[in-house]
Automatic annotation (TrEMBL):
Domain of life: Bacteria
Species lineage: Bacteria, Bacillati, Actinomycetota, Actinomycetes, Frankiales
Protein name: MoxR family ATPase
Pfam family, one: AAA
Molecular function in Gene Ontology: ATP binding; ATP hydrolysis activity
Amino acid sequence: MSLQEHAFADVADVRGRLKETGYLADEAIATTVFLADRLRKPLLVEGPAGTGKTELAKALAASVGAELIRLQCYEGLDESRALYEWNYKKQLLRIQAGTGEGSDAADWRSTHDDIFSEEFLLARPLLAAIRRDAPTVLLIDETDKADVEVEGLLLEVLSDFQVTIPELGTISASRRPFVVLTSNATRELSEALKRRCLYLNLDYPSAAREKEILLARVPELPEQMAEALVRTVRALRAMELKKAPSIAETIDWGQTVLALGFDSLNEEEVKSTLGVVLKHASDQARAISQLKLGAN
């Protein structure tokens, strides 16, 4: 089933196919994904870092057999990195070959037309996704980290799924990619961008759901140990940390205690493996001083 023809039959189909990839979607996630597919609208997923936003896009691509094309946003991202640029080194070599001794104006015109052809075009993620004929999921990751000017570039792509290249004209998508934008909400995205998207807020899951996710990804982990890990992770997230543990780090911790053969989570075992979930020395010091580790 291709994304062009709608990827999912219904909400239950979304949940079932995402689950096959290892991603456990609740009703809100599955419903929003289904509507984004059915209405052919981009999906904006917002929430704290580490709540599974990027993983949702990866699972979506895997569930429908689509290629994932990722645009990682950052401060200073510009059109040449997001959309396209010309292969300047190759163009220079072509110019040198075509404008040697004895060349005339006609030769230069021919060379000029040649160097601004498809052969010299380097497609970046946005253009690459638009030009693909096969099913594609375009992930625009951490959109809030890009400069405001980049949003103007995204508006044309998300409104008409087309890109205008002055030297080549307008390139329109023959098959619309499924677009997922993620944001950690470090800044407010423009209303114009939001209007073009369906919106999904992803927060940390409940204890029961995180335990379900942990056991699905680390099935050999004893249930009692999973409960202890989730309880400890949730206590860590309640502290004022530089970086709260993500769901992925909960899974890493589960795999860690399993690999080490721990059958309980006492104070010494937490201290020895705390670096799996907390990546700042100050966060680890705060956790050790505030957690009642012996109770776990």
